[in-house]
Amino acid sequence: MEHEFTGQIKELLVEEFGQDADTIYDVSPLIQYLNIKTRSAMRGSKARSSFANLYAIYVLIEDYLDQGFGGRKAYSNYEGAKFTDLFQRQRELPFGSRLQNHALNSRMNEEFKGHFPQAEYVPVLRNLQTNRYWINENLLKITVGRRKYNIAKVIISIINKYIETKRDAFKRFIETSERLKEIEAEDDIQVEGFVMSLLAPNVDARVFEIVSYSILKYFYRDQIVYFGFDLENIQEENLKLYKTGRTNANDGGIDFVMRPLGRFFQVTETLDIKKYLLDIDKIEKYPISFVIKSEENVDNLRQRLKEGAEKRYSVKVIVDRYMGCIEEIINLPTLQERLREAKSQGYLRDILDEIITQSKIEFHYEEDVD
């Protein structure tokens, strides 16, 4: 598979290995895996970035080089890198502050085997008793004819180039947003078009969550409910939507919560029923609304989730209990309609401001991009 970033990978290989660059690319499953994981590089901020698995490789190879391996020093005698050190380093890298431990523990190897089922080796080695980790050196050593190469340094260079490219993409995203803030009110159609462009199936998961929150926050803003402990003391309150944490964190939390109704919202891009059942179970079957990054009809989405639950549980009362916990499904067309409604209430610029603010927080704009 070749894409726009493939050329940059091959340029780095030529710089390092000269005439053997193409052969190394062809015989190295690890480099080909990087090529698969970096296909979003040239698609701007909206494309999914896939940093987690890349950073699992990065920190292990960085440790490998920092410890002086890659030459004559025997890696087989190395005691291994501590998980805590690797995990901390992942979170120090650009866009890595909220990464979880899944890639280092299993997800990276599982995905690698999915792409290269015939490969003899997996990239991440670990000792569960000592919690020590190694990069599989067999994947770093390449033989071309009589020449032996170690690709550790070029792997670091490829991932660094990808980071640089994605940072530039997010910088342009913020700059575009900032420019749109300055457009005169009569040109709101450009602002609306920009926000609409972020409501697409290929949008980065974090951007989607930010845009969803921004739209729904102002969609609900003018809706009023009446609360009181007795009829003589009824108070009027506007609905307020709050983000409960950082985006796409995989930390088991709930993404948005609404006061005073106490509604929960979870943002997702999968239709894997296990994810929905887990979300429902972790809040003890409290009703929850799902914001789904899909253009599929809401009724179809609900039916697909029901069919998934029926496959998992054959008892109707259990399936009905889970499905009854899905308070609302909000898909991409619903978000688009709610954006138009919020615009009609005069909130379009507020939505854009919210997107900019949340994006700067999420992507550490001042720290990592400027």
Give an account of the 3D structure.
By secondary structure, this protein is of the alpha+beta class. The chain has two domains: 160 residues, no CATH class; 185 residues. 52% of the residues lie in helices and 14% in strands. It is built from 15 helices and twelve strands. A five-stranded mixed beta sheet has the order 8-9-10-11-12, with helices on both faces. Helix 4 crosses helix 5. The two termini are 33 Å apart. 31% of the residues are buried. About 2% of the residues have low confidence.
Element layout with pairings:
Elements: H1 6-17, H2 21-27, H3 29-37, H4 51-66, E1 81-82, H5 83-92, H6 102-115, E2 124-127, E3 132-135, E4 141-144, E5 147-150, H7 152-181, H8 188-197, H9 205-220, E6 224-227, E7 235-238, E8 240-243, E9 256-259, E10 263-268, H10 273-282, E11 288-292, H11 298-312, H12 316-324, E12 326-330, H13 332-344, H14 348-362, H15 365-369
Keywords:
370 residues; alpha+beta; 2 domains; five-stranded mixed β-sheet; three-stranded antiparallel β-sheet; 12 strands; globular
Count of DSSP-assigned helices: 15
The largest sheet is: 5 strands, mixed
- Give me the count of strands: 12
Estimate nothing, just give the exact number of structural domains. 2
N- and C-termini, Cα separation: 33 Å
Radius of gyration: 24 Å
Class based on secondary structure composition and strand pairing? alpha+beta
The portion of residues assigned to helices is 40-55%
Strand residue content: 5-15%
Detail the poorly predicted runs: 41-48
Strand order of the largest sheet: 8-9-10-11-12
Report the mean per-residue pLDDT as an integer. Answer: 88
